[in-house]
Amino acid sequence: MTTSAPLEVTLESIPSAFEGVIPAAICTVGADGSPNVTYLSIVHQVDERHVALSRQFFKKTDENTRGNPLAQVNVVDVATGRMFNLDLRYERTETTGPLFERMRTHLDAIALESGMANVFTLKGVDICEVTQCSLVPGNPPISWDNASVAGTVGFADLEAVSQRISRAEDLEELLQIFLDACRRFLGCEHAFVMLTDERGERLYTVASAGYGDAGTGSEIPIGAGLIGLAAARRQSVRVTHMARELRYAQATRAAMASAEDDEIPLPALASTQSQLVTPMLSRHELVGVVVLESERVGAFQAAHECVIGIIANQVATAMTLLSADGTEGALEPSAPTEAPGTAAVLVKYYPDDESVFLDNEYLIKGVAGGILWRLLRHYVDEGREEFSNRELRLDSSLALPDIKDNLEARLILLRKRLEERCDYLRIEKTARGRFRLQVSRPLTLESAEG
Amino acid sequence: MPESAPPVAPFRIDDELKEFIESGVAILLGAVDAEGHPRVAYGWGPRVHAGGDRLSVYIERARSPQLLSAGLRQIAVTFTDPVSVRSVQVKGQMLELGEPNEAEETWIARQRDAMTVSCALIGDPPHMIRNLWMDDTIRIDLTVERAFDQTPGPNAGQPLVSSEARAGEVVR
Predict the structure, then answer these.
(1) Are both A229 and A285 inside the same structural domain?
(2) What is the pLDDT of residues A286-307, one digit of tens each?
(3) Rounded CA gap, A124 and A127, in Å?
(4) Tell me, what CATH number does A441's domain have?
(5) At what angle do helices A225-233 and A98-113 cross, to 10 degrees?
(6) Confidence band (pLDDT; 50, 70, 90) for A254?
(7) Which residue is closest to A111 within chain B, CA to CA?
(8) Measured between CB atoms, does B125 come within 8 Å of chain A?
(9) Cβ contacts of A36 on chain B, cutoff 8 Å
(10) Mean pLDDT, residues A190-198 taken together
(11) Residues on chain A touching B124 (C-beta within 8 angstroms)
């Protein structure tokens, strides 16, 4: 029951105070009347009169709120530097439900990212009534114009992106619209899209912005690390101060397994401080995730998470529709592309994992590797350079599953990897559903199976 | 609820903990007003006095009206290193309030600078940290009675035992 007086400051007016960029402080009262003061990792605004506090390690705080329901929390609005005191009255603890799951995923993701699974066990989420929210007197010494952080997105902008998405002709255009929207709406210069593989077990990077050529084709298992967990739980994870959160988890990135030689590292900034991972869902199916990164603390706020969530799901739905549309455009004539007189390239193929090496340099593996091998076989054996998506779909040796057709994404990935790794193999789109293999050096094909 | 039994021996801050407390850590103060409302504020420039049984810490007069009007009796002070996240809570009784002299203000400034450097190490923009404090401070002197490990993890909330007591008789 809420009978308290109106709040001096409404919770809706200070959203950036709940971003956790500066950790919140909480004071409770023990059974002996003594104060207990500590930091809180998450203060989440539930509605106009309630906040939720994460209950992890605060044994004393937990005991205190059971005995005495009163608490005071201090939060800092990083956009302005102002501080607010929230007087709270404990109401109940939730151990299930969307809010609990959201907070649990956040803590689990941070723990996983620091190589410490099962350390942060979220015991519950304490829902507290805010009986008063008041501005702590005293002006911040430094006026900090943080407009770039707190930018808002207008409905007209959102609609414009929505229309571009609905008009996208193919996956590549769709992903470009998506990454452009991340940059325009959030000022985010570093973002990448990972799609779910054919078996629904891994994510692979298919498009990126702001990382140069790095990272295309990188893979992670669904469930691994912060990104993998967001995908597995189909929940956004937003980190506003990565270094602090990882420190909090007593981070030891070195403890994570080192990458294998033929693994491509994920796109990454030198010092990521803010990260937003948002699942892309279509008909409850995980299509992929979009990952946004910034080296600035507090770069992504709750409103940004909502906007990206809306766009991500629309992109996912559009992807599903594009996959279902199997029409193909008219074929353009082609000319032989191989330049005479240059040294042959050794293309080696390992059927076990469908990996392809060019002159003993790893290029790609998995479905994209299998596709490339078949294209090259057709090229060498029959002199063919023109191909259609349809024939690849029907190629039973590629074992593309019927349920989730990632062919177009795999072709994008393959094209980008070729552009990154060599200058003599290219895949060029010639019409809707059709492409050309361009080879400018002689090839010697060798399969490890003999 | 009956009053909990006092500890067998009051906690004493040893040299190692004194060094930690005075190393430019982040500080929170907690108190309870006459109506039983908890009050929280940021603290600055802690100093551990000889013998480890008394402590001074400074709060901002302008920013701490609730805490200052709380009729300070019992006080909790939590010290946290921003980098290692090591955290210790000390509890004691209010002794008196005092005006800091010039030497104390220099001491506070040095500790604030050290904390800003620690925060910068984990990526906090210095201007964001600078906004956490104001210049007009007041000193709170308090006794040291109990201390607790407050570092996040399964041991959070465990009482600390004085090194003196550990070296001699077992406490509890």
Answers:
(1) yes
(2) 999 999 999 888 888 888 898 9
(3) 9
(4) 1.10.10
(5) 160
(6) very low
(7) B153
(8) yes
(9) 30, 76, 89
(10) 92
(11) 241, 244, 297
Residues belonging to chain B? 172
B82·A244 Cβ contact <8 A: yes
* B122/A32 Cβ within 8 A: no
Is residue A144 a part of any domain in this protein?
A: no
Residue B18, pLDDT > 90, answer yes
Where does the pLDDT of residue A253 fall: very low under 50, low under 70, confident under 90, or very high at 90 and above? very low
Residue of B nearest to A249 (CA): B152
Express each pLDDT in A358-400 by its tens digit. Answer: 999 999 988 889 899 999 999 999 888 898 887 887 777 766 6
pLDDT confidence band for A327 (50 / 70 / 90): low
pLDDT of residue A252: 31
- Same domain for A209 and A311? yes
List of domains in chain B: 15-146 (2.30.110.10)
Does the residue A164 lie in any domain? yes
- Measured between CB atoms, does B128 come within 8 Å of chain A? yes
The distance from CA A77 to its chain's CA centroid, rounded to whole angstroms, is: 26
- What pLDDT was estimated at residue A116? 64
- Nearest CA to CA, how far is A280 from chain B (Å)? 30
Contact: B40, A25; criterion CB under 8 Å = yes
Quick one: A350 and A386 in the same domain? yes
Alpha-carbon distance B167 to nearest alpha carbon in chain A (angstroms): 27
CA–CA separation, A110 and B26 (whole Å):
23
The mean per-residue pLDDT over the stretch A80-90 comes to: 91
Tally of domains in chain A: 3
Per DSSP, the three-state class of B46 is strand
A105 belongs to a structural domain: no
Q: Which residues contact A73 (CB under 8 A, 6 or more apart)?
A: A24, A25, A26, A27, A40, A43, A51, A53, A85, A86, A88, B40
Residue A56 belongs to some domain of the structure:
yes
Q: Are residues A15 and A51 in the same domain?
A: yes
Q: Which residues are registered as beta bridge partners of B43?
A: B27
Would you call A39 and B66 a contact, using CB atoms and an 8 Å cutoff? no
Count of CB contacts below 8 A, A vs B?
Answer: 141
Between chains, do B152 and A57 touch, taking CB under 8 Å as contact?
Answer: yes
The DSSP secondary-structure symbol of B153 reads S
Q: Nearest CA to CA, how far is A111 from chain B (Å)? A: 12
Range of the domain at A129: 11-99+114-135
Probe site for chain B from A60, A72, A86 (most B CB atoms < 10 A): A72
What's the DSSP call for residue B162? Answer: -
